[in-house]
């Protein structure tokens, strides 16, 4: 039986998801009518500003903001270091394609970079902050699983904003795996900052493939890494709590 606080945070996520999907659809409609890519990405940026504010408010209301942003112990960063190395290698590989872009494309990349950092802020604060803390009373395994599952289901909102079913189904799988990796990572690191930064950079660099027209080679390696690190971190976190 879900407690009142747990029901409330799930309702917040439902509203958050609907807002994200509807505003994403609105941004798409504006782009279709104006064909102005800068306006489109500007709208996406404003949407993420709103979602970030909602997430911070909900964490302060249902969780503990300080608990999610404790002092970073740099020895704990080893658990996410392989992911950052993969991002750096990918960015180096993309540099030749990026150097050939025109000014408008560069402006889009900069705006989208800010947007993806805000995506990292809003989603990590809500799902690895508020949700994880609210359900932690049920035990870490349930809390980590619920956090990953709810994060995955949130991406159904992309159907509202125009995503095709096959792409969204794949996204549900990949985001669930990502959630299984990041939930124990946050518990281990006691701070959302490293995963916020990684999440934002991951989304940004993934988008650079579509901008440059190069094939996306990072996704497969990243998913394998997520699975391996998720298994390792689950074992470590669960053993430490015995």
What's the structural blueprint in terms of helices and strands?
Layout: H1 4-34, H2 37-62, H3 65-68, H4 81-98, H5 103-134, H6 140-154, H7 157-160, H8 165-189, H9 193-212, H10 218-240
Helix pairs in contact: 1-2, 1-5, 2-5, 4-9, 4-10, 5-6, 5-9, 6-8, 8-10
Tell me what the structure shows:
The chain is mostly helical. It has one domain (4-240). Helices cover 82% and strands 0% of the residues. It contains 10 helices and no strands. Helix 4 packs parallel to helix 9 (193-212) and helix 8 (165-189) packs across helix 10 (218-240). The protein starts with a helix and ends with a helix. The model has no long low-confidence stretch (mean pLDDT 90).
In short:
With 242 residues, the protein is an all-alpha fold.
Question: Main traits of this protein?
Answer:
mainly alpha, 242 residues, globular, 0% strand, single chain
Instruction: Give the strand content.
Output: under 5%
Contiguous helical run count: 10
Total strand segments: 0
Helical residues, percent = over 70%
Return the domain count. Answer: 1
pLDDT averaged over residues: 90
**Low-pLDDT sequence parts:** none
Q: What is the H-and-E element order?
A: HHHHHHHHHH
Q: Separation of termini?
A: 25 Å
Structural class: mainly alpha
Radius of gyration: 18 Å
**Shape summary:** globular
